[in-house]
Amino acid sequence: MLLQSLASVYLLVAATLAVPAQEKRVHHHADLSDHAHNDAHDFQYDHEAFLGKEEAKTFDQLTPEESKDRLAKIVDRIDTDKDGFINHAELHYWIKHRQRRYIEENVNKHWRDYDKNEDDKIAWGEYKNTTYGFYLEEEFDDVEDKATYKSMLTRDERRFKTADRDGDGIATREEFTAFLHPEEFDYMKDLVVQETIEDIDKNGDGKISLDEYIGDMYTPEEGESEPEWVQTEKKHFTDFRDANKDGYMDFGEVAQWILPGEVDHADNEAKHLIHETDGNKDEKITKREILANWNMFVGSQATNYGEDLTRSHDEL
Fold it and tell me: Is 12's pLDDT higher than 50?
């Protein structure tokens, strides 16, 4: 009985400290991903791009009035030349800044969890023992989903070793950043593609079919008609994703999907926000125009998508 109780405790610890799902699933939850961007469905993509992931969650806890008030203060910060307008360069810089800040804060948070001896390095053993220590001794016998936790350990070890460029079994801060955010590093990109295929490829044939591609994004409810965005994604798969028209996405095609070369998503998002907000089409936006479209830029309790959010309302 005591052993089962301890197992339950360590299960919670492992779930808390293991690399979060959104960082394992780079293609689906990257800061500015290539996933379908459908403002008719919701503005969550825009919120995360404009604010950063964690601050977007914070805004989802505010009333609409509080959100608009804080947005007005943010607009003043973005307008660096203080001419009363937000141009493309200012908005592009802001979005890039928010994404860099999210990565830095995320790495710092995990660094404190894992650098147990405070030597400013994280050995594979430190990460493994902090995350899976109890289960390593028991061979995962007391874990309900034993196969999943073994798979998590194998995957974490492979990613850690790939990030560890000098192969010494110890991650510097830069290498640990590559471990948590592999999409940001060229030498990690093959691993990003491999992990994506493993996640979506349900029959294990090493490629992604149309059904697997759609099934990873959407599960229909009984009696529900298929949303328009799903039909659009099916067309994207057949017309663009499956470049050789064999009915599947192979390694190269998945790489082109999730890591499309020199695409600057922050630049595209800045252009998108200005296009959608710029009422007089002068290619710059005022505070008035932004606040008139406030729910595109930030969320609130009124636009909360059902997340259980508990972060405090710290000022940006």
Answer: no
